[in-house]
From TrEMBL:
Residues 172-387 form the PPM-type phosphatase domain. One of its GO terms (molecular function) is phosphatase activity. It holds the Pfam family SpoIIE. The keyword Hydrolase applies. It comes from Streptomyces filipinensis. This is Phosphatase. InterPro entries: Bact_Sigma-Reg, GAF-like_dom_sf, PPM-type-like_dom_sf, PPM-type_phosphatase-like_dom. Coiled coil: none annotated. Keywords: Hydrolase. SMART domains: PP2C_SIG.
């Protein structure tokens, strides 16, 4: 085996593979370089409950937990896990597969018992990362990897919403984002979006009025209008105004989209916000959890030619910001108790030390428990942002949790 071959050549071989044949190409590559006897790509399902093997559909292997066991541990911690197997001469290396902070799944590679030294595991991780990038690119040309993420059929509304999303996470030196949607297979109106450039991050959370297809169509219009305005290079308030006009022109005020728009300066930590509706913003700073008080303005599309104003706030290195949709803070249990700020504070306090991805999932899990495990009556979106800041990132004072 040739483990000294540059990683760039591995990327080239994966890039040259047919979109549907990436796992097979990775298997051949790993067999040549590391003597791998078995290679399996597991992708996280939409609900982030299981990791499912990518195989020739409709046939597939059994899923494994996305939170327990060696593969689940590699996925949640985003660190390689070496499993000692019943076969004395082999080990199973579980490698997280992520693309710029968006967790896709786990690559499982069976190698000889003497091959899983730290240097080899590091090189295996590089190939797992290269494979992740190719899986994302291949999604333009094949449905294989999207289908492998499903434990059951999506509703049409959910299909539309998942196609709108930028991913479920994003990481740069200055910040780490983790996000979660529920019910994953039947969402209708909730959405999150983000975009970054050299010096700024823009983040939005949108809750389209209604349910099902109607809500999905409304949210698609809202997100498309916000992206169009953002890409025109205009300010946050004007982005809201243009999206507001687009929705009002289509619906005449009969329906609307509640949206929280946020923009951050990556160097200074200064934030701008337009609160156009019901999503709420919480900030964790040290042991303190506080609701960031913003001026409530009209939801997008409720009235003709609504004018919006920006507010400013400050984030500091080490801060965690959590945005929750109405489906989180407004949900009631069977006894009529609102999920509300009290329960949310408990969940946020208990998840402070885990990654933003797992924190967002835990908030939704707490919400499901609150309603009694019967399933959510409305969509719930949670976006968790850990702020590192440019100065702290450059000096290594605060390390991102990816």
């Amino acid at each position: 085996m040739n483990v000294s071959e540059p990683i760039s050549s591995a990327e080239g071989r994966l890039r040259a593979a047919s979109p549907h044949a990436l796992v097979a190409a990775a298997g051949r590559l790993l067999a040549e370089r590391f003597g791998a006897r078995e290679v399996t790509l597991l992708l996280a399902d939409y609900g982030l409950t299981v990791l499912q093997p990518v195989t020739h559909l409709p046939h597939t292997g059994d899923p494994v937990s996305a939170h327990d066991g060696p593969a689940g541990t590699a996925f949640t911690t985003q660190k390689p896990v070496v499993e000692v197997t019943a076969e004395a001469d082999t080990q199973l290396v579980h490698l997280p597969v992520s693309v710029r902070g968006d967790r896709l799944g786990v690559l499982c590679v069976r190698v000889s018992g003497t091959s899983a030294d730290p240097g080899t595991v590091l090189r295996l991780g590089d190939i797992a990362t290269a494979l992740g990038h190719e899986v994302v690119t291949a999604g333009r040309d094949t449905d294989l990897y999207l289908m492998a993420r499903r434990t059951r059929r999506l509703t049409l509304a959910a299909e539309m919403q998942w196609q709108l999303l930028p991913g479920r996470g994003c990481a740069r030196d200055e910040y780490v984002i983790g996000a979660h949607l529920e019910p994953a297979y039947a969402i209708g109106g909730d959405n999150f979006d983000w975009s970054t450039d050299a010096d700024h991050l823009t983040l939005t959370v949108t809750d389209g009025m209604g349910q099902g297809i109607d809500a999905a169509l409304l949210t698609s219009l809202a997100v498309g209008a916000l992206r169009n305005a953002r890409r025109a290079g205009i300010g946050l308030a004007d982005q809201a105004s243009l999206a507001d006009q687009a929705i009002y022109s289509q619906y005449g005020g009969r329906t609307y989209a509640s949206t929280l728009l946020l923009r951050f300066d990556l160097t200074t930590g200064r934030g701008w916000a337009v609160d156009a509706g019901s999503p709420q913003l919480y900030r964790q700073r040290g042991a303190t959890i506080e609701l960031v008080e913003l001026e409530a303005q009209m939801p997008l599309g409720m009235f003709e030619e609504t004018r919006y104003e920006e507010q400013t706030f400050q984030v500091e290195p080490g801060d965690r910001l959590v945005v929750i949709s109405t489906g989180v803070h407004g949900t009631r249990s069977a006894s009529g108790e609102v999920f509300g700020e009290g329960v949310l504070r408990q969940v946020l306090g208990a998840t402070r030390q885990i990654s933003p991805h797992e924190a967002a999932r835990s908030v939704v899990a707490g919400l499901v428990e609150h309603v009694g495990g019967e399933g959510l009556a409305s969509d719930a979106a949670v976006v968790c942002l850990d702020w590192i800041g440019r100065d702290a990132a450059s000096t290594g004072q605060v390390r991102p949790s990816r």
